[in-house]
């Protein structure tokens, strides 16, 4: 540690501090509010695969890292049990897999906006009915919106426990990758959350 401290001091101490706060672009909260983002785009893939991706541009969510609302919603959307979107689509032989969520870094989440995406891997039959698949997804999201999260604290606590177990029993990572991750966390979270802010859920706030 003494050697590392010496190196860091030598390398970084000469960098001047201009005393300015960290730049924020939080005032630009609707970058995608244009007609072009209310359309369906068809893209021909290089390999033979059918995929339907639905994307929403939301207000920035990084300040809610202790609640992780998008993680909570993606958990519900991506559930595969009885009554889930994927279960219904599989019974119709329309879909093979479904993923919903936000990577919580870089392009997907920053001080300007947050992206929430749902991606469905379709069968050949599902490709023929992709409008109906999209309709089912929107119906499910509408149902979540209508019912609200108030009665689902049990689900949130379940997610919290699972993430806590994964954190405590995670495999050791490469030290360089770990340091890089911590440096990124230092730009995003409060000091007490540098080690855990990107993984754990701390507070249940249904209004968020």
TrEMBL record:
The keyword Zinc applies. Residues 167-207 form the Peptidase M16 middle/third domain. Residues 2-153 form the Peptidase M16 C-terminal domain. One of its GO terms (biological process) is proteolysis. GO terms for molecular function: metal ion binding; metallopeptidase activity. InterPro entries: Metalloenz_LuxS/M16, Peptidase_M16, Peptidase_M16_C, Peptidase_M16_M. The keyword Zinc applies. Gene3D superfamilies: Metalloenzyme, LuxS/M16 peptidase-like. Keywords: Hydrolase, Metal-binding, Metalloprotease, Protease, Zinc. It holds the Pfam family Peptidase_M16_M. Belongs to the peptidase M16 family. This is NRDC protein. The gene is Nrdc_0.
